[in-house]
């Protein structure tokens, strides 16, 4: 939501800058255009994610006991491990209730 | 091919340390296919430390982009959780632990004991996370 607002404001700022330059108001126009473009690119192409939570993993991955709640989504995440490379992978976990149903 | 190369390297190192090749091969088979256990305690119940491989660590410096910092700044006006920076630290934690485990795996350890996190700030917008511990080889206690 907030991201969309920032994108919208920066897009408007970019358009205003272009409009000002087109109408002959150069200094404020360039300022608005450059600011708008920088914020727009910085928001659209932000690389904040390290590794996506995967849906499932193939056979060479071993399940570990490590689990946690992803603070972004609130969903459980399980950690898989590849003993050949030492690489870890994060997959969407099932809730404890789903895995261990009550008798 | 790569598997055989790794095994040969392990056996050569072990034979230089005076360990019989067969023992080294058994160790390798035991370690192969096991996950790297990461604990914050010194001891693991039911296990004993057979070999200490040394310190192991994972370091990462991460930052949010301009958009994330702007959103976090706007969010801090009204207070509450700054989800952009929560995401940043969570991703940094995973990244650092992954690097630490990979380093431990490189050292042929099957566990990391006394694992700790350390954090610092670089340039006000970058977060540094260090995960460190002691890489060991655990075996079931007799």
Give a brief rundown of this model.
The complex is a heterodimer of chains A (103) and B (142). Chain A has 3 helices and 3 strands; from the N terminus they run ααβββα. Chain A has 103 residues and is of the alpha+beta class.
Give me the secondary-structure topology.
The complex is a heterodimer of chains A (103) and B (142).
Chain A: H1 2-22, H2 26-44, E1 62-69, E2 76-82, E3 87-92, H3 96-99
Antiparallel strand pairs in A: 1-2, 2-3
Helix pairs in contact in A: 1-2
Chain B: H1 2-16, H2 21-31, E1 37-38, E2 47-63, H3 66-78, H4 83-106, E3 111-122, E4 126-140
Parallel strand pairs in B: 1-3
Antiparallel strand pairs in B: 2-4, 3-4
Runs of chain A in which pLDDT lies below 50 for 5 or more consecutive residues are: none
Separation, N- and C-terminal Cα atoms of chain A: 42 Å
Shape of chain A: elongated
Taken from the alpha-carbon principal axes, the silhouette of chain B is: elongated
Number of helices of chain B: 4
* Number of helical segments with 4 or more residues of chain A: 3
Please tally the β strands of chain B and state the result.
4
> Which residues of chain B sit in consecutive blocks of at least 5 with pLDDT less than 50?
1-8
The CATH class of the largest domain in chain B: Alpha Beta
The total domain count of chain A is 2
Description:
The complex is a heterodimer of chains A (103) and B (142). Chain A has 103 residues and is an alpha+beta fold. Chain A folds into two domains: 2-44; 52-94, no CATH class. Chain A has three helices and three strands; from the N terminus they run ααβββα. Chain A has helices at 2-22, 26-44, 96-99, and strands spanning 62-69, 76-82, 87-92. Chain A has a three-stranded antiparallel β-sheet, with no helix packed on it. In chain A, α1 runs antiparallel to α2 (26-44). Chain B has 142 residues and is of the alpha+beta class. Chain B folds into two domains: 1-33, no CATH class; 36-140, 2-Layer Sandwich (Translation Initiation Factor IF3). Helix content of chain B is 44%, strand content 32%. Chain B is built from four helices and four strands, in the order ααββααββ. Mean pLDDT of chain B is 83; it is low at 1-8.
